[in-house]
Amino acid sequence: MAKLWIALMFLLISFPLQESSAQEIVNITILHNAVKEGAVCLDGSPPAYYLRRRNSPNWLLFLRGGGVCYGDSKERSCLSRSTSELGSSQQMSEQISLNFGIFSISKKNNPDFWNWNHVVITYCDGGSYLGDVEKPVQVFDTETNKTRYLYYRGRKIWNYTIRNLLQKGMKHANQVLLSGCSVGATATAVYCNDFKQLLPHATVKCLMDGGLFVNLPDITGNYSLQSIFDITVREHNITLGIERNYVPTNAAYKQLFPPYILPSIKQPMFLLNSAYDTWQIRNILLYPTAEWRPCVLNSSSCHPRQLQILQGFRSSFLTNISPAFEKEKWGFFINSCFHHCQGDVSTVRVNNQTILEAIGNWMYERQKKVILVDFLSWPNNPTCVTYFEDTWL
Q1: Which of 82, 88, 340, 374 is flagged as catalytic?
Q2: Alpha carbon 267 to chain centroid distance?
Q3: In this structure, are residues 150 and 158 in contact, taking their beta carbons and an 8 Å threshold?
Q4: CB within 10 Å: which end of the chain, N or C, has fewer?
Q5: Using N-to-C axis directions, what is the helix angle for 183-197 and 154-167, rounded to 10°?
Q6: How confident is the model at residue 243, as a pLDDT?
Q7: Strand 349-350 relative to strand 353-354: parallel, antiparallel, unpaired?
């Protein structure tokens, strides 16, 4: 009898752990029927997402990031991408482990979103979910000596995916948070207003994580990011559904910069970003030069001029986004760590609030205004735990 009791107790203790572990693993959903509507990845394969259903009327959607591709006549970046998970659902993982940050299934660690329906929308179009080129693009593959066809269909992928999720039950949602990382955050901002129109009876809010790209010169004086966005907009035929007076017709690249996107957003928005955005400092401001390696790995190694350049980027970044601080029902968490997307970061604090606490307070309106801006310059916030990896050069 004693042995039976011990066995029963073991089952009672271990079952929740097994269930929790099983809930971390989320299977891919491939949208095969999307191909009929032309909603396809770069290589022509169907788009996909990862959905974890919970017994909840609330939905959290996340648009993955991964940069943009362009210039196939020269750099052939989209061709290379089309054979990876960033351009083909055939290369995507059948399962992912989803139990971190805002996707944590721990009520203790993620009290506001742990039991929501979680959706991770994969990124495979190379154009920030915004491309709209009807005719396939022909590219000659020198490795195989064959002509390949690429598809810039981000907008169709977005439309089909959202319709599919509405059919899966999202149309009955009470609360929905649309979020995204990097270029996924850009798409979040662009689609935020239209997304609300599809859910007229739900509370809809949007979150940009690491998507506040600023049009600043690099250390050589060139506007590199402006050039990247200009080519991307033209090659992917990106025409945004934002109010025309915010974007001059002779400067299409501005469509992807926050000062021209944010004013048109009518829904509540949360801006999560570092004032020292890793991707922008690394790829746009500095370029990977050996001169900067000691500085970004150890602030005590920075020369005064280097610190001045970094602090100048922070000041310009805050100036670029400052008009958004006046928006009603918007939330902000702008810290001074070397980070890009931070949805999985749990330790960083600003004014003694973590990222998840700030998002929850804003989502549930527990605070009248959530504006958390780190007035400590890098590297003076002790809660920052990661900087550049030593492999950045």
Answers
A1: 340
A2: 18
A3: no
A4: N
A5: 50
A6: 41
A7: antiparallel
- Confidence at residue 364, expressed as pLDDT on a 0 to 100 scale: 97
340 belongs to the catalytic site? yes
pTM over 0.85: yes
**pLDDT, tens only, 311-357:** 999 999 999 888 888 898 999 999 999 889 998 888 899 999 999 99
Question: The tokens of 239 are what?
Answer: 């025409």
In the set 43, 112, 209, 277, the catalytic residue is 277
Tell me which of 45, 104, 179, 182 is the catalytic residue: 182
Burial of 332 (0-12, 13-18, 19+ CB in 10 A): buried
- Here the tokens at position 182 are 């990097």
Q: Are 157 and 39 in contact (CB under 8 A)?
A: yes
Give the whole-angstrom CA distance, residue 163 versus residue 176: 15
Using one digit for the tens of pLDDT, what is the confidence trace for 158-168? 999 999 999 99
Residue 277 known to be catalytic: yes
* 260 within 8 A of 247, measured Cβ to Cβ: yes
Nearest CA among 240, 178, 239, 181 for reference residue 212: 181
